[in-house]
Amino acid sequence: MRINSREYFIHDLRYIIRSANEKDAKDLSEVRVQIDGETENLDRESGEAYIDESGFKQIIKDDTESVNNLFLVAEVNGKIVGFSRCEGNKLKRTSHKVEFGVCVLKEFWGYSIGQSLLKESIHWADSNGIKKITLSVLETNNKAITLYQKYGFEVEGLLKKDKVLSDGNYYNTILMGRFNE
């Protein structure tokens, strides 16, 4: 599905949140690899589960055609600096929900880009009959957990010792959900 573009201006930075289009595929492939290497809050390390330009073109095409999917990008001066996806499915028993994921280049942390992507995704879900948004977050990512709680997400579960990070220690993944009645 697609949304209307929206412009934001925070801390002297102007950015646009908009639906991804196929022209974004090459940039998304490169940005994803970079973001994965900048934080351990995500599931992948840099280059893991690599998606090339044609892979992103297919994801964007599928998400645009699906009423239960939304692929958004954050753009600064024509450059993609982050993105988010809401991914649903066609199974009748779970068609009421989507899974949300978000990532932003480290250079652009602190400008509420992740929050803006989340707000746009929530608005889309609430406006399109999506009843539940789920997500997973590393237990040490307190800033993200606080943000999700601010927007009505609740802890639904815990995956114990779910990820091993560069320090060799195991960390829990928190499962969160937001239900729109």
UniProtKB/TrEMBL annotation:
Q: Which UniProt keywords apply?
A: Acyltransferase, Transferase
Residue ranges of coiled coil: none
GO MF annotations in UniProt: acyltransferase activity, transferring groups other than amino-acyl groups
Residues covered by the N-acetyltransferase domain = 15-181
InterPro entries given in the database record: Acyl_CoA_acyltransferase (IPR016181), GNAT_dom (IPR000182)
- Mind telling me which SUPFAM superfamilies this protein's record contains? Acyl-CoA N-acyltransferases (Nat)
In terms of domain of life, where is this protein from?
A: Bacteria
Q: What is its EC number?
A: 2.3.1.-
Which named protein is this?
GNAT family N-acetyltransferase
